[in-house]
Amino acid sequence: MDERTTSDPAIRTEGLTRRYGQTVAVRDLDLSVPRGSVLGLVGPNGAGKTTTIKLLLGLARPTAGRAEVLGFDAITQSLEVRRRTGYAPENDAVYGWMTVRDALDFCRGLYPTWDRERAGRCLDLFGLAAGQRVAAMSRGMRRQLALVLAVAARPQLLLLDEPTEGLDPDRRRDFFGVILEDVAADGSTVLISSHQLHEVERVADRVAFLRAGRLVREGSLDSIKETERQVRVVFQGAPPPDLAAWPELGRAHAEGRTWVLAVRGDLHAVLARLRALNPFALEVVERNLEDLYFSLGREADGDAHPPSAD
Amino acid sequence: MSGAEGDRVSEREDVWLRVNPGSGVPIYLQLVEQLKTAIAAGVLEPGQRLPSVRDLAVRITINPNTVARAYQELERLGLVTSRAGRGTHVAAGPPPIPEAERRRRLREAVERLLLEGRTLGFSDDEIRRAVAGRANRAAPEPEEGG
Amino acid sequence: MPIRPLLIKELREARWKLFTAGLVMVALGAVIPATHGFVVGLLEEVPLPPALLPQVQAQLRDVTTYLWANWPAKNLYQTLVVAALVFGAGALAPEFGRGTAVFLFSRPVTRRAVVLAKFAVGVAGLALAALAGTLALDLTARAVLGQGVPWTFYAALVPATAGASVVYGIALWFSARGDDGLRAGVWAALAAAALSVPSWVPNLQVASVYVHMTARPLFLEGRFPWLEVLGLAAVTALLVLASARALEGRDV
Q: Which stretches does DSSP call E strand in chain A?
């Protein structure tokens, strides 16, 4: 088998575009996901998350652009991609007539890297019995089965589409435990599309915001948090007249007497400059993923900023 | 895999390591702060081995890269030492935080306190008295919530 | 390319369909010899034009002719065509309708391998069902009429199955384009009906799949229709490849 160098990114897309008639599901997507990272793919419904994943797996064909997965072309070398990729689709897709054992047997024969022992451990953790029929399972159990099938092949890349829908909190934790173990043990790359922003925030080290098929922002979660900080300030009198011209600042808006300033440049420089004005109150606002999600969404709707990497 | 000692350490970690992903503070910084506190408070003793990146990541369900980044930051601060193949250990001796850094952090804490107090409508004098009263007490009360 | 898990999956998924087809074939095969006496008696009471009478009676009294006329020349191929339509139409479209296509095609298998596995299981099922029916015919004839069927009945299974795979291929092609097995079946049945047009025109019978399925040269001349079988196999191969192509160009 032809192994690509591990310095290639796990996923690289260039101008990836997919149209369905008049609608553009994915628009000119340039994405690069380094190996060993956990990428959270977040965005509202219809943002193109599922289509992106399907394009990576060769389940859908791009209208324009190209995608490379683990160093293989997503279309011409799709089989090589799928050999090394575990995928838990958004909808429960495992055959209803299969039992857990049938599903495992089916997949074991297809993946040369299948790990029986890991499959067994995951089943035990989730409390899935080998004789259970898929048709008789709850939504959550099917999600767990899909994950077991995906990780037991010891994939180099895991693609998880809304993986925790229908899971209770305890199971979610177990679920992510399995994924993280996979990442830590094998250095696998993981892409999780999710609405559960707090979950993404916990397990992901990178995040990509999609909106209307477009990549709004992508990069390391920590550095996005660090560069998307805001400062809340209450001036003694009127704000300095040249505030809008400060190079380190992005948007500034007032809520009553309180000004909220988006800091794009060096935070400490901004703080020093503001402190010199002897403000009544000065505070750094740390923003979590949900805050960023909404503010980047607003920016995208206004089409204010091009996507930028960290 | 951690040995017997590692397991003993790990059980204690679950008690004091609390990551709050919903806060805007990057998770690696939360980890750094909590590990610093644990070292300062003696929960982690000099020479004690920290759990491996993988163990800790799986146990508290966060990304291994985040844990690794926190350990790197602690090492940069001189609080832990790590040698290839031997894991990460709490550094012996007092943590050498530079004087300027200590002052900067204290100033930030005071600013936060002042802002909170003023927002609640206290005068600077009242805030000063509250701080002084608190400092005179022998032991701090446990914090509420998580 | 690991094709074994695909074959096992298709076999298990189709097992009730295969079983039903086998059962229908066995029932039909057993009924034909068992009702021979009844049919002969019935026809002797029907007033036939005197010119035709000796010919019809001779045909009826000759057991082999009677069995051939009712099995390879009639029930066997008709049942095979219906079963091939059902199997072929149900092969791919329901994978999309049920949403299992996402699971199947995200595994490391090519779409062509999936199509080939489905085809192999479907056609093997058709052949086995036809064999079971012919065995039932043979055994019942031995028990009731005191004589079995000659080898030509078994040899006739080959052109019958080859023709059935053409029909299967047509149904498969429609199935590769839709989400609904029933709808694919209806379209395939219309196409299959259109295929019967050449059998009504004497000069065009060479183009009729169904005429070839009845293996006439075997009965009339004792000659195995090699050329016809090869022709049917070639048409089948084209249809299966076209189905695989249609599937490969499709978004899941």
A: 11-20, 23-33, 38-42, 64-69, 72-73, 85-88, 157-161, 189-193, 206-211, 214-220, 230-234, 249-255, 258-263, 281-285
Q: Is A61's CB within 8 Å of C105's CB?
A: no
* Region label for B45, one of left (φ > 0), alpha (ψ between -120 and 50) or beta (otherwise): beta
For C27-54, what is each residue's pLDDT tens digit?
Answer: 999 999 999 888 878 777 777 777 777 7
The ipTM value here is 0.89
Chain B residues with beta carbon closer than 8 angstroms to that of A181:
54, 58
Report which residue type is found at A66: R
Residues in CB range of B61: below 8 A, 6 or more apart? A173, A176, A177, A180, A202, A203
* DSSP 8-state code for residue A5: P
Model pTM score: 0.83
Backbone phi, psi, residue A229, to 5°: -80, 160
**A132-156: burial string, b at 16+ Cβ within 10 Å, e else:** bebeebeebbbbbbbbbbbbbbbbb
Residue A60's CB is within 10 A of a number of other CB atoms, namely: 21
CB of C37 less than 8 A from some CB of A: no
Nearest CA in chain A to B109: A283
Interchain proximity B115–A226, CB inside 8 Å: no
**Nearest residue, CB atoms, A201 vs list B22, B29, B58:** B22
